[in-house]
Design brief:
Blueprint lengths: L29 H15 L2 H4 L13 E9 L5 E2 L2 E2 H14 L4 E12 L4 H18 L2 E10 L7 E11 L15 E4 L5 H11 L15 H9 L4 E6 L4 H13 L14 H10 L12 E5 L4 H13 L4
Helix pairs in contact: 1-4, 3-4, 3-6
The protein binds magnesium ion.
Length: 313
């Protein structure tokens, strides 16, 4: 026994919870295979993925396909109301939903920074798996790369989504018509402010929780009730104002909104005032803007309210 009273016995092997991503986890060898099996196949379990072929071979789909891709970079990885994993699933599903498509399959590409805790990656994968299951989609192929310490930001995720657009559905800026009404699906800015305040350690009054949520169910319900939706856009980075600007430019129309009628929760409004932000430009991850003719507004609002009451939005 050493005389030094500060001696502490140490376990020679790292505890499982201390294990970190090493460059070899992206090297194509044994460690990478182990990572794929222990984390991704375990979490995403389905026959397309576990075939481990160069491509997932999917059944023919009945209808037009919608395909989209997006990369997710967020700090912190876990924030009130979500994390980078659920965000990557919801964000891509929402881009499909904005075309009226029923989401079916996702890919998942991971760029991992050397030194990332494997336990954290497991949590992200579990969150993605739960979000995908809840939305009825399967993650059917994927990729993993590891970059040197300091050359990434823990985890970057890219997800590509494939969905099927039902017959007769035609949604897009080409259908914007003079006189269309503009509806936002809920209160704005909660995602952006929740992530910002968590990242910067800011405390605001009220409960700031990200609005991250899948939107395909409510869109499918609107279409099922034969609401003639002219155009949809999910409100992500840049918020409502950027989405409206983009659409107005593409469709060569002007739009008028009544700011006082746009719902913004008190915690978001207060935080925006303190930070000098315009809530119309703050990010959302579970909100959309919808354009339709005035005669459809009441029926559409009734369906939206039903979903809000059921906490779907
Ligand atoms: Mg979008």
């Amino acid at each position: 026994m050493p005389q030094n009273s500060s001696f502490q016995p140490r376990c020679p092997l790292p505890r499982a919870s201390d294990e970190t991503i090493r460059l070899a986890h992206g090297g194509g060898g044994h460690l990478m295979q182990q990572l794929i099996h222990d984390i991704f196949l375990e979490a995403f379990s389905n026959s397309y993925l576990s075939a481990l072929q160069d491509s997932a071979v999917l059944p023919a789909q009945d209808g037009r396909l919608a395909m989209t891709t997006d990369s997710y970079v967020v700090q912190p990885l876990f924030f009130p109301g979500g994390d980078i994993g659920s965000l990557a699933v919801h964000g891509t599903i929402n881009d499909l939903a904005m075309m009226g498509a029923n989401p079916r399959y996702l890919s998942a590409g991971f760029i991992l920074e050397e030194g990332l805790l494997i336990a954290m990656l497991k949590n992200v994968a579990a969150s993605m798996a739960k979000a995908a299951k809840d939305c009825g989609v399967q993650i059917v192929c994927g990729d993993t790369k590891v970059v040197d310490r300091g050359k990434g930001d823990q985890i970057f995720i890219n997800t590509t989504g494939l969905g099927v657009i039902p017959e007769q559905v035609d949604i897009g800026p080409h259908r914007l018509t003079p006189g269309d009404r503009i509806i936002v699906s809920g209160d704005l800015g909660a995602h952006g402010i929740a992530v910002l305040s968590q990242r910067e350690g800011l405390e605001f009054s009220g409960n700031l929780i990200s609005d991250s949520a899948p939107l395909h169910t409510v869109i499918a319900d609107l279409l099922k009730h034969s609401i003639s939706i002219h155009c949809l856009r999910d409100l992500t980075r840049g918020g409502l104002a950027s989405a409206l600007n983009e659409l107005a430019t593409v469709a060569q129309v002007t739009m008028t909104i009544e700011e006082s009628r746009i719902p913004i929760g008190e915690p978001v409004r207060g935080a925006c005032e303190v930070l000098g932000l315009d809530p119309l430009y703050v990010a959302n991850e579970g909100r959309f803007v919808m354009f339709l003719s005035g005669s459809e507004v009441n029926r559409a609002l009734a369906i939206l309210h039903k979903h809000i009451e059921q906490s779907v939005l």
